Amino acid sequence: MAWQTGGGMLVPSSRGTELDWYRNTIAAGGCDIQLRGHWYRCTAPRLIEKDEALSYLSASTRTVSRLFPVRQFLLLAKAQPQG
């Protein structure tokens, strides 16, 4: 699951820094994300808390995401469409 923001992508991190995908993304300095059938190259990953993450989302998405038990999110810089 990921949301496109004005400056990149926001990905919920249900277990914070304990997941392999999180560690791999940090080590590589970014990752590729498929969203709605399109691939995006994302860079500069940064772990942020839920309060900051909500500020990147639209009002309707904020309402839904408040229901998730996720407290941390990975914010990735400007998502560039690939191919």
Shape descriptor: globular
Roughly how much helix do the residues carry, as a percent range?
25-40%
Query: Spans with pLDDT under 50 lasting ≥5 residues?
Result: none
- State the order of secondary-structure elements, H for helix, E for strand: EEHEEEHHEE
Instruction: Supply the number of helical segments.
Output: 3
Structural class: alpha+beta
Compute the average pLDDT: 85
Question: What is the number of E strands?
Answer: 7
Strand percentage lies at: 35-45%
Give a brief outline of the structure:
The protein has 83 residues and is an alpha+beta fold. The protein is built from 3 helices and 7 strands, in the order ββαβββααββ. The strands form 2 sheets. The protein has a 4-stranded antiparallel sheet. A 3-stranded antiparallel sheet has the order 3-4-7.
Please provide a written account of the structure.
By secondary structure, the chain is of the alpha+beta class. The protein is built from 3 helices and 7 strands, in the order E-E-H-E-E-E-H-H-E-E. The protein has helices spanning 20-28, 50-54, 59-65, and strands at residues 3-5, 8-12, 30-35, 38-43, 46-49, 72-76, 80-81. The longest helix is centred in the N-terminal third of the chain and has 9 residues, at 20-28. The two termini are 21 Å apart. 16% of the residues are buried. The mean pLDDT is 85.
List the main descriptive attributes of the protein structure presented here:
83 residues, four-stranded antiparallel sheet, three-stranded antiparallel sheet, 3 helices, 37% strand
